[in-house]
Design brief:
Length: 194
């Protein structure tokens, strides 16, 4: 399995050994809510009935079903592994590390505190700078959303953003110098009910 995993990691461009990646996966899985053998156990009988009536399936996972947490664990692991340190971000942008920390503090970049310091999601950067229009987008993003939610939004094609005849992700849109206000408008409703 190690050789196959190393091949997948290399094809994905992740600079991490199979052992390091599996350690990241284990760490991410531990931080998630433990698997619930009976999802309905959190609710009383009337709540279970109301939720079931609306179409929610509160039955436990079957033996053949994949744990839905697996995708989140994998995504969180990749987000964490590809994130830049303050030093890496500073080098990429061509500024001092204190400037990067100042941008994080003023929410002109987003990041999280991790073992060893701040980590900044790579989607915010080009090869040599910050993503064009990023400040406009970050100003509109709800500050209560986790980094993974924001990363998924920024890297998933949106029907309201088209280049040519295909929907593109907000990151692709900004890389093509599309109007950041369009992305900001979409970003402002992240985490709100549809």
């Amino acid at each position: 399995m190690t050789v196959a995993l190393e091949t997948v990691l290399a094809r994905a461009g992740l600079k991490v050994t199979a052992h390091e990646f599996l350690t990241l996966v284990e760490d991410a899985a531990k931080r998630l809510t433990p698997a619930q053998a009976d999802p309905g156990a959190h609710f009383d009988e009337s709540e279970r009935a109301a939720l079931t009536e609306t179409g929610l399936d509160l039955s436990p996972l079957g033996e053949e079903e994949t744990d839905p947490r697996a995708r989140s664990v994998a995504e969180q692991t990749v987000l964490r592994d590809t994130a830049l340190s303050v030093g890496q971000a500073a080098e990429r942008v061509g500024v001092d590390g204190s400037r990067i920390r100042h941008r994080v503090a003023s929410r002109r970049l987003i990041g999280w505190k991790d073992r060893g310091g701040w980590r900044l999601p790579a989607w915010q950067f080009t090869d040599d700078d910050v993503l064009p229009g990023l400040e406009t987008v970050l100003a509109a993003m709800p500050s209560d959303q986790p980094a993974l939610v924001l990363a998924n939004f920024m890297t998933t094609p949106q029907e309201d953003l088209e280049l040519g005849d295909r929907p593109v992700s907000p990151r692709e849109w900004l890389m093509a110098y599309g109007d950041p206000r369009r992305v900001a408008e979409l970003a402002s409703v992240i985490g709100t009910p549809a």
